[in-house]
Design goal:
Blueprint: E1 3-5, H1 15-19, E2 25-28, E3 31-34, H2 50-54, E4 61-63
Antiparallel strand pairs: 1-4, 2-3
GO molecular function: 4 iron, 4 sulfur cluster binding; metal ion binding
Cofactor: [4Fe-4S] cluster
Keywords: 4Fe-4S, Electron transport, Iron, Iron-sulfur, Metal-binding, Transport
């Protein structure tokens, strides 16, 4: 399972893109998206998902 970014809540701040250890987050069109093939849910590197931990809007980075 991967995480996803709820575009309707995303402020496009970019914090998640730089914190993602797997490089799964990219800006496409008008929103940030997480490539589910690249998302590791930070399981190998961290105890929590980095996208969700740095996002200024609660519950924007959520399990897909």
């Amino acid at each position: 399972m991967a995480f996803k970014i709820l575009a309707s809540q995303c402020t496009q701040c970019g914090a998640c893109e730089f914190e993602c250890p797997s490089g799964a987050i990219k800006f496409k069109g008008e929103a940030y998206v997480i490539d589910p093939k690249e998302c590791t849910e930070c399981k190998e590197a961290f105890d929590t998902q980095q996208c969700a931990s740095v996002c200024p809007v609660p519950k924007t980075c959520v399990p897909a």
